[in-house]
Batch of 3 targets.
Target 1
Amino acid sequence: METIFALSTAPGKAAVAVIRVSGSEVPEVCRVMCGDLPAPRQVALRALRGRSGDRIDEALVLFFPEKASFTGEAVLELQTHGSPAVIAAVLGELSRIPGLRQAEPGEFTRRALDHGRLDLTRVEALSDLLAAETEAQRRQAMRGFSGELARECAIWREALLRALALLEVTIDFADEEIPVDVTPEVRALLADVIQRLERQIRGVGIAERVRTGFEVAIVGPPNVGKSTLLNRLAGRDAAITSEHAGTTRDVLEVRMDLDGLPVTILDTAGLRETRDAVEKIGIARARDRAKAADLRVFLSEKGERFADLAQVGDIHLVAKADLLDGADGISGLTGKGIDALVARLTDILQERASGAGLATHARHEFAMRKALMSLKEAHEHLDLGESLTDLAAAEVHSAVRSLDSLVGRIDVEAVLGEIFSSFCLGK
């Protein structure tokens, strides 16, 4: 494989820039630019020089040998001063060394996958970790990057391989009397994996929400204070407010961090009957987004309940509490009830987030559902007697293949392009 290089830190002015090189030409890079290779995993201060012998910069140089690096190849890190001129000069010199080329997005991580340093679930978790904006997203991504899902898959796979071995013994010696009936053990193994898969599948939806963000819709009639509440929650004038009804025509979104959870607050058009064609479109969108949201906050002055939109767990509040003496409600204008609302939203969403599983992507769910379907089919075949043992074994084989696709042992090429397209250069 060609030796690749890239700037791994953000472009622009900085105190330090990190430039990574991975591949068989690492010793040659060191010889050309900074002398002999330093001792593995020990930082050395070296002068970086160009082909003309002119000094480009002084850098900290760190060398990782083959099979002991992130990519599994020999890796060199050059920690230079972070000026654009220094970075451009170093990258320019690297590009002139034969056998080197600029890395593509995610190519360092792709090589880690190719060399068995990471499995596919850890690659996806690394992508999530790079994109994490909140503490909950970071924690969830680290669970995946530490290999928790891969280890769980290994447990399932080991149990299924044991079940397969027992089934195949029965098939191979079908004409002979086997001293021990293996069917009860096979049933127990399949039942345990089925239970584990079902538990993880139940947690995928919540895990995806932690990864992509929960949605909370503010819903109510026109001019009830929805936009004012959104602005108060956002801490800025995100929405236009007016005493005239129907000001909000489209769904406005504000991203927030509630105790580590990513949350998007939606300000929707006021719900009412109208002849205005544009407002009708806004109201239809408001209803669609409110139905699809994870939680709804209903504001009303006259006790409207919007039964067609309300779901269990939604929040119903009296609006414009600043105008009502002693009213227990909320006011976006004065801030009354805001802290209580934020605390309530946080408690509800934290409770939901606690149900997140190890699987965090739709791809994970698809693979697990395929495996689950195969195992249930195998269980049914076993219930119908020994004559269908070969069919049960075939279904267990199918389940193992589905789990292998989950961690990237097979059928990996189809998803790599989509995964690595989200990576930055140098990762």
Note: The CA atoms of residues 199 and 270 lie 40 Å apart.
Target 2
Amino acid sequence: MNNRIEKQIEIAAPVTRVWRALTDSKEFGEWFRVKLEGPFVAGQPVSGQLTWPGYEHLRMELFVKTIEPENYFSYTWHPNATDPKMDYSKETPTLVEFRLAETASGTLVTVTESGFEKLPSGRQEIALLRNESGWQQQMGNIKAYVDKTA
């Protein structure tokens, strides 16, 4: 089983604009569909209520690892944490990394999520499969958001 997801999308906007959409927690919330309750700060947790239709009853919790302006942003989280009765805090979270690179026509966004092998065996495959399609959707969402607001 592959324990890593990687997706890329090119956005016709400057790195500065894409960076803001990615690392301003309010803008991130618009395209990711979560109402975060604070800013992204390296070394700090942030959480919020999902606004994705059908998932509004769930909260998302992230721990921001690294912010390297206009280049690299990473956080950890518990993927596919969709059962509100389950305590995911004992699980090792996966690492989500965003890298930005300037291109001739805008910005290349690469998202990588790794660490699925550290999840309990009963959750590995479903979390990987759901996040594989989820990241495909989210890359389209950030592009559409930046295209609309640039």
Note: The chain has a mean pLDDT of 96.
Target 3
Amino acid sequence: MGGDVTAIAAQLDQRGVRHAYVDGGITIQRFLQAGLIQRLIITRVPVLIGAGIPLFGPLLQDIPLRHIATRQYKGGLVQSEYEVAV
């Protein structure tokens, strides 16, 4: 889907969608800034990348998070799950 994130969220809500996977640095930034993300799962892969789009970029304000869980997988992949504190 493309377009304004609030319009996308409204379309998904009308379709009865209650959980959506949002990916991509700019897309995540837009959904965060619109207050449309309630839970984050951040995956870290053991590779340092020299360039790219920052995951969060500049934010208008701090977004407090509550840690839910952290999982470690074979090969070094680590996932941390957070709830956006309201």
Note: The beta strands are 39-44, 65-72, 78-84.
